[in-house]
Structures are given as C-alpha cells and as structure tokens.
Amino acid sequence: MHVSRTRLTPNADRSKLADNQTLIHNDDRDLPLSEVVNRKIHSVEQRRKIRTDAVHCVEILLTASPEYFRSDDPSQYGYYQADKLDDWKRVTQRWLQQKYGDRIVRAELHLDEATPHIHAYLVPTDEAGQLNCKKLFGGRAKMFAFQDSYAAATKHLGLERGVRDAQAEHTTVKEYYAVVNAASSGLELENIQVLRTKAATYEWMKREQVQLEKRLKLLAAQRDLMAMELQKTQESIAARAEIDRAMAKEQLSISTDRVAVELKLNLGEVDPLVGTIDLVTDTLDTNLEGALVWLHEKFGAAATAQLVTQTARTIWDLPDLKFISPDPVRSEWDGIRKYFTDEKSLPAKLIDRLYDEGLIYAGECGTLICLHRDFEGKVTGATAIDPKSERHQGELVAGSSLTGGFYYFENNAQVAAQRVVIIESPIEAMAYATLNLPEQPTLYLSTHQGGWVSGDKFSGIEVVVATKIQLKNLPNRFEQHLPNGASWVADLKSDLDGVTSGRIKIGERNDAQVQAIEKVRQESLESDLQKITPPNPPQNRGIGRK
C-alpha cells in the first residue's frame, strides 16, 4: 500500500525511504493495518451489530506548505529545514494524542516525497468504545471544528488555517496517482525529477501571484483611503480660510447678552459669571456639540469659531489644577485605626503596614486618606473616606486623576504580581485581602468614580473582578468573585461574628479558614499576613516589574 511503501509509489524518492518514520504504533507494528484496526474495534464488546457500510478507520493527512518547511527555497523538491520539521512533528504528534488518545492506532511520517506529511489512522469509537464515526465527524460543523482545532494547535509555528468553507474539489489518492502514472509512463527518471521540480516551481509561482494580487488590492485600498483623507484635509483648509477671511472683516462678537436674547431669557436674571457657551448648554440642557450647532445656526460659522477661540484662550490662561496631597493630622490616626479594626474588623497588622508605607493616613475631620499612585510609584491623587459613612467608596480629593493612578497595595512586594484583584474601594480591598489569602503574589487595586481601570497593563497575569459595579477598559479575560453579602466588609464582619458566637462550626468551614478568622480577631495573623511585607515606597512594585 502507499503508506507502508509495499507498492510502487512513482512520486516517492526510494533513496529516502529509510527516512520515513512511524510516530505512533502499538506492539502490533508489523501487523497489517486492517488487522490492527479490527483488533482495536473488538477490544471493547460492540453492543450493536456493525453495519456493512460502517466506517472502520479514518485516515487523516496532516501537512504544511513548502514555504513553511523550506522557506529559503520552496521550489526545492524533497528538501526541508530540520528544525522546522522537528517542531511541526512534535506539535502534530502531541495534538493527535491529546485529542484522540488511543483511537490513533498508527501514524506514519513520510519524508521521501515533495513535502513532509503525516498519515494518521483513527478508529472512530465513542467514549464507550462503540464504533461511531458520525459522533466524531458527522456534519460540516464537526469537520470545521476538527480543522480549526489543528489550526489552533499549530498557529504558534506561524501556520495559517486554509480558507474556511472553500469550494475546492477534492481529488482522491487513486485519481492523483492515475494522473501521475499516465504522465510518467515512458519517461526517464531524470525527466520525472525535472517535471517534479517544474511543477513545484509552478505551484510556488501561483501562490506568489495570489499574494501579489492581495498586496495590490491592499495598496489600492490604501490609495483610496489617502485620497479621501486628502480631500477632507483640503475641504478643512478651505473652510478655515473662509472663516479667517470672515473674521478679518468686522464681525459682531457673540456676547452673553445677545445669546440671552436669542434664548428668550430675562437679561436681569443672567449670571454675569456664566460663560456664553455654558449659558447655552445649561438653558437648552445640551452638550458642547449641541451648543455649537445652535450658535452656528443663530450667529454663523465665523462668529461661532471666534467665540470658541476666545473661550479656548481663556481656558489656556487658567492655571493647571495640580494635585496636592492633603496634610496628615496625626492626632486623628488613633481614632481612625480603632474604628477600622473594631467596627470594620480589619486586621491591625494590615492597617499599620499600609500606614507605615504612607499609603493611608488621617486627614482633617477624622477622614481616612488613601493615596493613588501610577505603576511607577508616582502619587496621582487620593480618596478621602469618612469612617462613619456607610459609603466605603469615599470622595476624590480635588486634582486627582481618574485614570492616571489608583489606590493599590500588594501582599508580597519582593516579586512581581501574578494576580490582580480589582475592587470598588480601598476599604473593600483590605477586607477582600483579609478574607481571601492568596497563594501567589497579588496586587489589590481600587477603582474610582467612573469605573475605569488600566486593563492594558494586565496582560499575561490573572485578573479577578471582585465588585458588582460596571468597569471600563477591563482586559478581555477575567474571573469574577463576588461577596456573599452586600460587601466584603460585611462578609468579614459576619464571619468574625460567627466564629466568636460559635455559629460557624468546623463542618461549615475548613480548619484553615476558621483559624485564619480567629487570628484576625486577635489582631495577630503572624503566619498568614506575614506575606504582606512593607516595600520601600515610592518604587514601582506592581505590574510589569522584572
């Protein structure tokens, strides 16, 4: 047969026959394939009589294009780069064994033809060992899934899946060799080798032509896009020139009084401190774009552009509002510490460690100040939390950036975080860290108003979302972990109350959980919270550190 080379194979180089390899086989390697298949089928008692037209074995042909195996010279018949062959062979063999297991009774690697390829023979049995080819390959969807699976397994090698649902017609092995034999009859071996080389070169040229046509289409599309952009730019320049010409002439400026009259407002009731554009947005309950459209309709493009320019200059002259950290009030700290350890059941060691690092401290009126930082350690803002308020999120301090930095801390500052827990407030982050002691280095990050997070910074690490609020800019993949009660603070207090009152029994929680909760109550946590070691601020201790 063709695979075992027991019959003449015209397109195979017999001098390379010894290079062929049997990749998968059992102890019955020397038996005919038909007998091996029959033994596999009857290794499990078949509950139904096997139909005469049943599929006993499926041959799977696995290969890649010549451009992969010999990228330096795709037209060289029979040549391949050893490292690429080894990578492809290893990945393919692993895929066969992981996906089909012992259903694969034999797999042969052929290296004596134009391009390396593997013939794999699969006995199509179901989970119960019953012959059932339809279960594995019945229908187009399953065939697509089969092809997609192999494409995914070899994608990292740089291989791309063939065109999905292509209309190409299949040529059987018998038909192919009929053509080969007819073409080669009466030819010298040297002539056959020349024809093979020419055929491979022709196929390579066809593929190059297809790629060239794709590149030409892409260039044409880019040319059309550039033409459109050029046209827009020219129109914009022309519009700007028209505005400049109009503004060069005497123009009536759009005063607040004129706008008030158009809005049918009482001039005596208009606040003189309100800007012209703000007056439009407030009165018409619209946004900036809506206000500009209205001004354009009432006063024209030139006057509206002049007003926008004047407003922009006014804003430009304003001093930048820079964030200034609130002053610490040391006399308030003991009261805040006592409140969060007694009333919120947070462990004293965690509170003291964050205080020592300067990440939290007492502000005016007994507020808890939680500093925000970027991932380089630079302070970018702060959240002020009133301990007596049930609203754990707190309020942003003036000048704080909503997207430039966050309140965060780590359980192990000596190594880069392998896990990020995103939560809605600093207090919730502390409660979560107390209740869920991690096994890997973890960073606990609190969001701000608006729910925006730096999802692009979390590639390659595990992300856990531990809040019900809607978040923006999350990474594509994350796990959600929500509290049992209204919040993680409530869960922590409930667990502690359960332990001290005896409501929680060992049968309801495992020993490690009960012991951890008891240690929190005693404010020791020497073993569990010892992982939270104080780093040296303000160095970067978070995402992306080597």
Tags for this entry?
single chain; 546 residues; alpha+beta; BirA Bifunctional Protein, domain 2; 4 domains; five-stranded mixed sheet; four-stranded antiparallel sheet; 16 helices; 11% strand; disordered C terminus
Can you walk through the features of this model?
- The chain is built from 16 helices and 13 strands.
- A 5-stranded mixed beta sheet has the order 9-11-10-12-13, with helices on one face. It has a 4-stranded antiparallel beta sheet with strand order 1-3-4-2, sandwiched between helices. The chain has a 4-stranded antiparallel beta sheet with strand order 5-6-7-8.
- The protein folds into 4 domains: 14-184, BirA Bifunctional Protein, domain 2, CATH 3.30.930.30; 189-243; 256-317, no CATH class; 330-531, no CATH class.
- It has 546 residues and is of the alpha+beta class.
- α7 crosses α11 (301-317) and α14 packs across α15 (488-501).
- It has helices at 33-41, 66-69, 82-100, 133-137, 140-154, 173-184, 189-248, 256-262, 276-284, 288-299, 301-317, 333-343, 348-357, 426-435, 488-501, 511-521, and strands at residues 21-24, 58-63, 104-110, 117-122, 360-362, 368-373, 379-385, 395-396, 407-410, 419-423, 442-446, 462-465, 479-480.
- The protein is extended and about 105 Å long.
